[in-house]
Amino acid sequence: MNKSESKYFNTAVCMDEAFLTLLEKKDFEYITVKEICEKAGVNRSTFYLHYETISDLLDESVEHMNGQFLSYIKRDTKPFVERLKTCPIEELYLGTPEYLTPYLKYVREYKRLFSTALKHSSVLRLSDSYSAMFRYVFTPVLERFEVPEKQRSYIMKFYIHGLIAIVSEWLEKDCAAPIEEIIAVIQVCVHSTGQMEGKG
Predict the structure, then answer these.
(1) Is-above-0.85 flag for pTM?
(2) How far apart are CA 62 and CA 64, in angstroms?
């Protein structure tokens, strides 16, 4: 990355952070370009150099957060992912607390952003973002179940949309339920399917 690219990237990160800060205090619909620029310390022309609309910034902010979370997962759950390759097959299903707990904590911390993103999920291709994040965990599981590669994208979509539905319901209730309770719900939903896959 050259100096010009680095400056462009750093400015984008500043606007992401400014947007996230504002989103903690007010709803997406009421955030203005002027507020974002003032918070980030940039002028309006700089904003429009990066984005056409605030929705574009929302899209990037979600990707920014998901990227940070994916880096965290790869760093802090590496032993867990390695264990997926060797643990008994009966213990293998896509609902383990090792990766659900940090993710749900992340959602709860940024619940206003995630609620906004879910409202704009079709525009933001949120299911694609989820797929990119959880492929890190899904791939070794599906490989262990010897699921043909051509079927894996369908199975991932099934899990992803189910997870989004549960997280959406949790967000609508202001993340009031304990994380352990949400994990239990996810496990009920996916455990039977995991068993069937294990028998296939």
Answers:
(1) no
(2) 5
